[in-house]
Fold this protein.
Amino acid sequence: MRSVTEVALAPAEEQDLARACTAGDRAAQVRLFRLEVQSVHRLLHRVLGASSMLEDLIQETFIRVFRSLASFRGEAHLGTWIGRIALRVAFDHLRQSRPAAARLEVVPDLASDDPDAERQLMAREGLRRLYRILERLDAKQRIAFTLCAIDGRPQQEVASLMSASLVATKARIWRARREVDRLARLDPLLESLVADSREVAR
Amino acid sequence: MTREQPPVPPFGEAAVSRVERGVFAALDREAAERAAGWGPVSRTRWRGRAVAVMASALAALAVLSTRHFWRAPGLPAHDARIATATSPSHLTVEGAAIDVAPSSAITFADERDGATVVRLERGTVTCEVAPRGTRAPFVVEAGTTRVTVVGTRFGVTRVGDHAEVWVTHGTVEVGDDGVTQLLYAGERYVPGTAGPAADTVAREAAPDEAPAAPVLAVASETGSPVASLTGSEVAREKPQRSAERSGALSRPRERARERADLASRGARRPLSLTLSPADGGEGTGKTSESPPAVAARASEPAARASEPAARASERASEPAAPAITSAMLRERFQSAVALEVRDPLAAARIYRELASGSGPWAANALFAEARLSTERGQPDAAQALLSLYLERFPSGPNADDARALLGRLRGGAGGSLR
């Protein structure tokens, strides 16, 4: 899975693009924005779920990106670097507020090729309830868990994105999973979905 | 937990555009605020700044009596650059609302003489500046053109090393190539490269009962003057003021002397306005041939392309009322000039009506209609009208301009003169 950047740029190109953006070249800034906006959207959507705040948070992410682009040294891919900023924005958002539960109508359909409409409906409702549970988690645990368990990123990549050690990341994911399991047992629908997913995992 | 990855809904183009606008508007605001010294102060830098402020307090006392003390706190202290791509940008600096058009770039220059200086590198900016009062002047620089604002709404478009300037309301002072003059509401300054603007505009002939139509020079892309423009407000000026400007100024020193003289009398002298002496022989002598005949000799495709020209030639066949005087024609022409910005169609109708007659006003009107058609993006109509002009007035006051503009339009570089 490509982590962040939609269209891969060579490191030298990334450096050139970053330099041009830092110099105030609006065309370069627009190019960078267009290159990364979908990745940032996907990342924030995974972490936060469907939220009316997504656009604001994407905007905040890119404002921070352009503010601090001068500090980009090319040690990581530009997309990874931007992803870290997006996660920082998400983290700040989660710390500052308790976002409202995802609205049912904006939660996306799950696997569209699934013929079982009832299962789809349950999965959608389950996802909504899952994000409601996630709101009760510590922000770092939630981010690590969503990136790993929902977005399917390897723990090493999650650690890199969160600028944390692999050990700390594993601990966060483990604690989050334990808490989700505990809370899911209190919700019959979630409990069945979690049980199903365990079956699949085996 | 689940291994199934729920799909993320697409982030649509409309949403992307919304976010993009928000991002770059915020960045532009920040850049402007940084330029003006209003940028946010981080916690880590606050103490340092506080110390610096205290340390400079004594120095500030020393300049209490200078005008710099009274300046608002947001004057550019360092270069900050704002460039737009496909979207315009809006920002507010020093009491001035600045609209940066797409594909434009401005720089907030170091303060100079206490002024807020915006340098236009390329493209167009439109500025709305509150009356300066005790504040330092607001200046827009574009190449050699320097626009000092008194309190107005105006626009500047970079043209090579110079700039076009137009004023919606209020007054600005435009300096170019060492010549500084005032530009009033409805007027437009278009630079020429043949010399100072006032020199480049003394080319259009006027009827024998001068003052004639006020004219501004228009430079081609290569810089050579190719056409003339008239300012809408200029036409409304009193003849007395127009008469003050009627002489074509040949040397900067003379112009400066006249400016000083006018200033001492409290008179205003708009930039680039000139009222050339009449060229009645040129205009009237060549029109002995009936206008319909002239129209018939115009090239067939051009005639087809230009309904206005055909209508003009039709009207030209109608005998003019004997009671019409030159003064009436002049007033009619000036009313068309005044209408150009607000109602270009009405202005074109009046030009057409005047062009259907004979004499110098017909020549002026015919060329003005061609110029207006060019500005309105009607190159075919403009070409037909220019051809007609050259047929009727081959040595007319705007013949050279007409040939140059016609060549430019035929060369595919047609379009708005502005």
In short: The two ends of chain A are 23 Å apart (CA to CA). Residues 5 and 27 of chain A are 18 Å apart (CA to CA). The longest helix of chain A spans residues 26-48. Chain A has a mean pLDDT of 80.
